């Protein structure tokens, strides 16, 4: 289910959205109907966004999968990516690497809790870890790894 940070990001996206613009919510869950994306789409519907202007990806488990799935869902359409400021450089980089025409806008930060510093510090090793996953994903076909097995490398 969507946590406080996800809800803040969704509210920021709703505030930025012009009439007729499509919103894409990403984020997996144990069950697709209880995913982060599904919860945020419900928030958008309750805020008056028409169903045909909401897309969801309930399978993304990582920033890299968010970027890949976004490209598959929207093609070459421009994207405004709303995320936390500390997560923006990594997010925008992976979206650009996947050919997404993206611009990033920082959502208001969630209330600082005792876990907040760890969320910021987590970005440092996440860069290296995500680069290793990207190398494995790019090299997987050389070893006959395709389809879902290849996609699982990005989780």
Task: Please tell me about this protein's structure.
This protein has 155 residues and is mainly α. It is 49% helix and 12% strand. The protein contains 6 helices and 4 strands; from the N terminus they run H-E-H-E-H-E-H-E-H-H. The chain has a two-stranded parallel ribbon with strand order 1-2. Helix 1 (4-16) packs across helix 2 (36-46) and helix 3 (63-74) packs across helix 4. The longest helix has 24 residues, at 116-139. The two termini are 18 Å apart.
Helix content: 40-55%
Structural class given helices, strands, pairing? mainly alpha
Report the oligomer.
single chain
The total count of strands amounts to 4
Q: Output mean pLDDT.
A: 87
Sheet having the most strands: 2 strands, parallel
Give the distance, in angstroms, between the N- and C-terminal Cα atoms: 18 Å
Strand order of the largest sheet: 1-2
Judging from the principal axes of the Cα atoms, what is the shape? globular
Number of alpha- plus pi-helical segments: 6
The poorly predicted ranges are none
Radius of gyration: 16 Å
Strand content bin: 5-15%
Please write the string of helix (H) and strand (E) elements: HEHEHEHEHH
Entry keywords:
single chain; 155 residues; mainly alpha; two-stranded parallel sheet; 49% helix
Secondary-structure blueprint of this entry?
Elements: H1 4-16, E1 23-26, H2 36-46, E2 54-57, H3 63-74, E3 79-83, H4 88-97, E4 102-106, H5 116-139, H6 147-152
Parallel strand pairs: 1-2, 3-4
Helix pairs in contact: 1-2, 3-4
